[in-house]
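I have a small job for you when you get a moment. Can you supply me with one protein entry, sequence and fold together? It will help me judge whether the discrete encoding reads sensibly. Write everything out right here, beneath this request:
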Amino acid sequence: MTAPVPLGGRISGRRLAELLGEWRRRGTRRGSADLAAAIRMFVLDGRLAVGTRLPAEREMSEALAVSRTMITAALDQLRAEGLVASRRGAGSWIGLPSGPVAVVPDGVAARDEIDLARAASPAIPGLLTAMDAVRLRVAEHLAGHGYHDQGVPELRARIADRYTARGLPTGPEQILVTSGAQHALALALRMFTGPGDRVLVEQPSYPNALEAVRAGSAVPVPVAMTEQGWDLVGVGAALRQAAPRVAYLVPDFQNPTAHRLDADGREQLAHLLRRTRTPAIVDETMVELDLEGDPLDGPPPVAAFADELVVSIGSASKSHWGGLRVGWIRASADLVQRFVATRSAIDLGSAVFEQLVLAELLAGPDDALRARRADLAEHRDVLAEALREHCPRWRFRLPAGGLFLWVELDAPVSTRIAVAAQNHGVRLAPGSRFGAHGGFERRLRLPYAQPLDVLREAARRLGLVAASVAGCGLVGEGEVTVPVA
């Protein structure tokens, strides 16, 4: 049975060449393998969507300045993996693999890859206990309709108490529970922006947030971060000159730089927002991951300095477990009701069971969160030590919190490293993903939420990748071995 021809869009040869960038590894003679690896990365990363029609082989050959033989060989590899489908007379398009995707030439299956593209930890200890506790008392909710458009009252009260403990008095009426922080961001952007509106963002910033801005046909206006953190003078200038409808900011262990804005900086930021009457969506998903202190002793939320202008969003994904899919919005009671009124166009409320589980976790002492922070601090230090050994020319600042190192490479080869890393069983997000308009080819975000032995092995492989791409690591010997569980 032949694959049906999809109705997706088409990418031109010129655009494909721009997307792939410097895909070929220096000195290699395996051009077809390099090309297949480059296309594979963009498919698995979601930037070449399933159904996208590929250029004809002749067009690809001309755009990439390589032989048609190389194009054919690369596409044959991808067809064997199910990532490309073809039909005579209809051309080729991006397909959906039916099984594990092999990364060649090392024969490492995708299920065995070390995933350093996703910054996420496994479930926090005590999650199963909380689920069992909720299971025993969920019956009281079963007699009702199960819809809570603002969220389960018990959870809203717990989240509000957490804000109050951080120095921002909050009541349950100021909390709207969402299905994760990304859902909260989408709701906030829908409230504040329309097509063509400008959104001030940090540069670099969280890729999924940038995609959410673009999905609403808004325009990101980037303000560059400095080595020390936020350029508040630059923020003020952008607020005055670009007149954005809203700002999106991550002041707590910023993604991806892991910087944290201190209390004085938050007060200055609030002054700039008030002076230009610019609302701000403040992302606090990392606030609980203070690896060198207690989050309750950290700087107050930005909303404590400009409550009327700030919409705070948070999530349990980074602190407890991504599988819970519970996030929230904290804003004025009036604005929360406006969110509730417009939410029905997107969804009718978040899952009750998961809300009750998070409420149970927040009801107890912070022992599990303290243990998580201690573990992450150890993981951070282990990855840093391993990188110093295997990639001694890479530079980074040891962050005080969050989930990742923002590494500076010694050459602009981030995309090439991400492509080559697949052949060593490591999945990376290139630095360009974190820029509003690309760039950051000297940067990589490396999460440290993996087990300690996996982090050490990842650093060892990255040393081999760095050496093969640009000579900026240690030259390894022998084949890369992948442990199989």
